[in-house]
């Protein structure tokens, strides 16, 4: 069988296996994401697998660059990718996307044993606080609020009741006037 036929068969199999699975997402007919772990799990991660034109004879492209993985250190990501590459080498020449996702699910705890969550809000606030002193306070311009004249304020006050709300029907159309204009 050709590479395209293998890919079509594997695509069909993946769609049937992961139908209704919230963790699986098909980005395109040759690119897939799978979330290992639950959304609220601090040790959850996302794997993206993209097939090359000659897949499965050549290895797929495995990535962990998704935004979901921002709280995982690069060392842990590299470790996971290295272990997945070993599984790719063992399965080269066969349909392996399902095998890689299941391998990652089965070994999640082992993959994430050295994981210490990175608090991205802390790093962002540190970056902001580092950059803030560099900006000159005189360069900031304050936005002026639009000022109303006395006449404008009076008109506004006359339209509203004592609570500042517009009376019921303030934007209604005078039906009699409209009918007179249309029928005459």
UniProtKB/TrEMBL annotation:
Q: Where is the stretch described as Disordered?
A: 132-163
By its UniProt entry, which InterPro entries does this protein fall under?
RWD_dom, RWDD4, UBQ-conjugating_enzyme/RWD
- Name the domain of life this protein comes from: Eukaryota
The record's listing under PROSITE patterns reads:
RWD (PS50908)
RWD domain segment(s):
9-111
- CDD domains xrefs: RWD-RWDD4 (cd23817)
The record's SUPFAM superfamilies line, in alphabetical order, gives:
UBC-like
Descriptive protein name: RWD domain containing 4
In its UniProt entry, the species of origin is given as Aotus nancymaae (Ma's night monkey)
Give the gene symbol: RWDD4
């Amino acid at each position: 069988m050709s590479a395209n036929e293998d890919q079509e068969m594997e695509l069909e199999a993946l769609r049937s296996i992961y139908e209704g699975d919230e963790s699986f997402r098909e980005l395109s007919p040759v690119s897939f994401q799978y979330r290992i772990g639950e959304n609220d799990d601090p040790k959850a991660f996302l794997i993206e697998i993209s097939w090359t034109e000659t897949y499965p004879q050549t290895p797929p492209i495995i990535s962990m660059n998704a935004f979901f993985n921002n709280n995982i250190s690069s060392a842990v990501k590299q470790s996971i990718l290295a272990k997945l590459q070993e599984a790719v080498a063992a399965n080269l020449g066969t349909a392996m996307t399902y095998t890689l996702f299941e391998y990652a699910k089965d070994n999640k705890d082992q993959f994430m044993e050295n994981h210490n969550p990175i608090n991205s809000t802390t790093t962002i606030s540190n970056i902001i606080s580092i950059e803030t002193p560099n900006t000159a306070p005189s360069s900031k311009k304050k936005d002026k609020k639009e000022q109303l004249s006395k006449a404008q304020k009076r008109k506004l006050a006359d339209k509203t009741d004592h609570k500042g709300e517009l009376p019921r029907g303030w934007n209604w159309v005078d039906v009699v006037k409209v009918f007179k204009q249309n029928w005459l």
